Amino acid sequence: xxxMKELLLRYYGLMTPEREAKARxxxxxxxxxGVGLMMAFSxxxxxxxxxxxxxxxxxxxxxxxxxxxxxxxxxxAEFFCSLALTVGFLTRLVxxxxxxxxxxxxxxxxxxxxxxxxxxxxxYLIAYITLFFVGPGRYSIDAWLKRR
Length: 148
Fold this sequence. Notes:
The protein has six helices and no strands. It is an all-alpha fold.
């Protein structure tokens, strides 16, 4: 039992407050860049291109504002807000339309779909809510502007 206690003390001793802060900021950077780039280029860019090609739009109207405006808002959030999120610019602000878009996608558009179909949408939603609460971290434009 003494060996286990010694092992745990060594394990917990590895993460000094400085190392923990650096690791947290690197983790937030990885989360922002990964989620931001995947959303922007796997989902948002296609929607922006579809909108720019012009109507009529064959698109869902989940909140009752019309297919064109729905495509514009979803594509704009998924592409432009994701790019801002990637570099950590206005992180908390841009996470709001992203979270809203994912909540609408999961709760309305894919509400009757099996969980497997909703899973990625919910994972994005969790990431955006997390970034809203914890912010972008040190390695971001937001942090750089705050220091100035």
